[in-house]
Amino acid sequence: MSFTQFLLSLVIVILIDEKMSVSQRSIPEDKIILREIVHVCIVVRDVEKTAKAFADNFGVGPWRIRRIHSPSTRASLRGEPVEYTLKFGHARMGPITLELVETVDGKTLYQEFLEEHGEGIHHIGVPTPLPFDAEIEKWQKLGIKPLQINKMEDPEEGWAYMDTQGLVGCILEILSFKRYQ
Q: 46 CB contacts (<8 Å, ≥6 apart)?
């Protein structure tokens, strides 16, 4: 399946309205309305090698590569506390960021995906309202559980991979950050 076909297979209608922030839009408390895609993530074995391949072969870049450590006090996998270290690579491609992720240490959804499927597209990241815990609760009330959660130092912010594979054909990552409001 091509990247374009993958995106077109989404059942969710994405309404793009770049002039309004997530918090300015009137979103009913019992509804989830996704208005934009901010990134597409590919799980890889080696972030630097893959970023170089994208740069050399397709002119994608510049790349920002960084490591992130999440302690078990802020991260969970299927409801169980986990600690992990990840390496991310980010490059802009028009209005969307291409995200590469490599598990350096620990148990993650990415590592499970890599072991089961190999390298490939893992999720689509979408901005959601604050606070993060209230957004998670909204999705859960609609029967969509988080697979992996990472809370930030600011308790209003965080990201989570939601169990939407069976619903829309891919995992959706919700991104509750002040920069998207």
A: 102
Q: Which pLDDT tens digit goes with each residue over 94-137?
A: 999 999 999 999 999 999 999 999 999 999 999 998 889 999 99
User: What type of residue sits at position 30?
Assistant: D
The CATH fold of domain 33-180: 2,3-Dihydroxybiphenyl 1,2-Dioxygenase; domain 1 (3.10.180)
Residue 121 is classified by DSSP as E
Confidence band, pLDDT 50/70/90 cuts, at residue 22: very low
d(CA 162, CA 173): 6
Closest CA to 32 of 113, 112, 141: 141
CB atoms within 10 A of CB 40: 20
